[in-house]
Amino acid sequence: MSALRMFLVQTKMNFVWYFQRDGELIFWTLAMPVFFLVLFSFAFSSGPNSGSSGFLVPGIIGAQVLSSGFWGVGVMLATFREKHLLRRVYLTPMPPWVFFASLVAYRMTLLAAQAVILIAVGGLVFHVHVIGRPWEILAVLLLGTATFVSLGTIVGALARTTESANNIASVLTVPLAFLSDAYIPIDRFPHAVSSALRLLPSTQFIDTFRDVSIYGAPLSHYGAWLGMLALWTIAGTVISARTFRWL
Amino acid sequence: MEQAIVVEALVKRYGSLAAVDGISFAVPSGTIFGLLGRNGAGKTTTLECCIGLGKPTAGSIRVLGLDPTRSAGLAALRPRIGVQLQATSLPEKANAGEVLELYAAYYGIAPRGAEMAERVGLDGKLDREIAQMSGGEQQRLALALALQHDPDVLFLDEPSAGMDAFGRRIMWAEVERLREAGKTIVLTTHYIEEAERLCDRICVLQRGRIVADAPPADLVAQYGGDATVSIAADRFAPDTALQALGAWTQTEQCWKLATHGEPGLALAAIVTHANAIGAKVDSLDMHRPTLEDAFVALTGETLLESAQ
Ligand SMILES: Nc1ncnc2c1ncn2[C@@H]1O[C@H](COP(=O)(O)OP(=O)(O)OP(=O)(O)O)[C@@H](O)[C@H]1O
Ligand SMILES: [Mg+2]
Question: Which of A102, A159, B10, B264 could form a disulfide bond with A10, CB atoms 3.0-4.6 angstroms apart?
Fold first, then answer.
């Protein structure tokens, strides 16, 4: 009961403090991905194997999930520690899981909103049809968010400073987005390479998300990859719980 | 009297530096305990070890019978202590009311934003964003966060730093009210006046060691040195009766008496004598030893010592 209230109030405050009152973040999370969609749609619209808008909409949403985990949570936690915000919270009786659950809830809500906007713009401007079942799409999105928030938390746990967290997050997010079917199809790589890339949780997540949303593939076909994502989430959570430092 | 806090042989090292070097003290419940000492003496380090923010290198700590260095003890302790850190940092975009609301949720109590704002002198400022609050206002909010859940033991690290005279008075009144309510308070301060007014007992730290631990009046009596009376008067010289009061020194026109006795009586005797011999008094000054004298005597080092 009191933990639920803590969770709800903390989640609300996450929204108000870190999103609603942060104009820069509103721009980066809501406007920037749409800008990417428009830019990449035109840039990739010619040539063989072109990344169509239908390919890009779920790809960009997927890339946002990655950056949400590594930047949004990983770097944020390192900043919180560096600014001594975590020390203050550590003194209160709030159970750590409440703190992390509210970060996950905040990120999931934000990503769901981003997905709705990108799908809407994709539909209106580029005639992208999303034929998947909404609940299945949402389920994959939420699982992916859980996975990358848990992995991002490891970044926040291990980085000593905000600066090093920033470096780790850029090294992880940008290449991963390009190597995980987000912007360009990995089929362009030699077969051995693309098979290897399909072992990445980011590729498994983005491909599943794309197939389930754009192509309406049934969720049940992706049991193995969803299971893998669940395992990554558990591993990320366990490692985070063991390595996270409040002080 | 039951002890709310017992610290025994506490050591905290940072590399080769012993920030706290084997200190022991106890704080009876319902009293105010002051940690004093120069910058870097180890006050914050000591306090942080008591609230689970620092792992002692050695020694033992009990707060309300619980061990803050173990996770079970700390978990049981957290709801019962209130803390104001020396440098509190809160989310920049948060406003005071929201922070109080969130902390009320952390402690499972009803939010008391308006009441707390009034108690610490932040009335009408609950919708101010942290980034736009002055340093003193942030200190007041930090105090409100320490108090809101009505803890049994309070740890206040330089609570009046950056506060104006009004804020300081509000804080003093709050602390005194808490003692009346039976709470135990540990505070650090650089304001001697504050320590003298509030503390039942003062512990003076010097380079991680305790150099004195006593009620303020005892510290003054023991380390404050002699009271002095100075008189500048034409043709004045102490007679034998006055010489018996203590040690006299003369510089030009001024005679100075250092005495263990009551300086008021000495003053009266000196004035009587001056009148009797017809010496015209130019100036007259009496100084009683203060806590500040005791503090300086206890912690003052020669420059050579400081450099080591
Ligand atoms: N994290 C740390 N790493 C290394 N040394 C530290 C650390 N924290 C404190 N110290 C050192 O330990 C000593 C005691 O510091 P502490 O903060 O306890 O002093 P203090 O009495 O609170 O001083 P002040 O009056 O300035 O607040 C200082 O010499 C300080 O430089
Ligand atoms: Mg200090």
Answer: A102
B299 lines ligand 1 (CB under 6 A): no
Looking at the structure, do residues B214 and B282 belong to the same domain, yes or no? no
- For residue A161, CA distances in Å to A81, A166, B18, B180 come to 8, 9, 25, 44
B189 lines ligand 1 (CB under 6 A): no
Domain annotation covers residue B296: no
Cα–Cα distance between B35 and B38 in angstroms, integer? 10
Supply the CATH number for residue B70's domain.
3.40.50.300
pLDDT at A45: 63
Q: Are residues B125 and B253 in the same domain?
A: no
DSSP SS3 for A179: helix
**Containing structural domain, residue B47:** 3-222
Q: What is the ipTM of this complex?
A: 0.90
Bridge partners (DSSP) of residue B8 are B60
Q: Which two tokens stand for residue B185?
A: 């308070």
Distances (CA, A) of A170 to A25, A68, A204: 17, 12, 20
pLDDT at A47: 42
pLDDT per residue as tens digits for the range B41-100: 999 999 999 999 999 999 999 999 999 999 999 999 999 999 999 887 899 999 999 999
Flag whether B303 is in a domain: no
Q: What is the number of other CB atoms lying within 10 angstroms of the CB of residue B39? A: 6
> In the prediction, which pLDDT does A48 show?
38
Inter-chain touch B106–A93, beta carbons under 8 Å = yes
Contact B77, B128 (CB under 8 A): no
- What is the edge-to-edge ordering of all strands in the sheet holding B254-259? B247-251, B254-259, B227-233, B281-287
Q: Is B209 within a domain?
A: yes
Give the one of B75, B89, B105 whose C-beta lies nearest to A88's C-beta.
B89
Instruction: Give the nearest partner residue to A17 out of B94, B106, B107, using CB atoms.
Output: B94
Whose C-alpha lies nearest to ligand 1, atom 17?
B44
Query: Could you tell me if B43 and B103 lie in one domain?
Result: yes
- B299-304 contacts: CB < 8 A, separation 24 or more? B299/B37, B299/B38, B299/B41, B299/B204, B299/B206, B299/B211
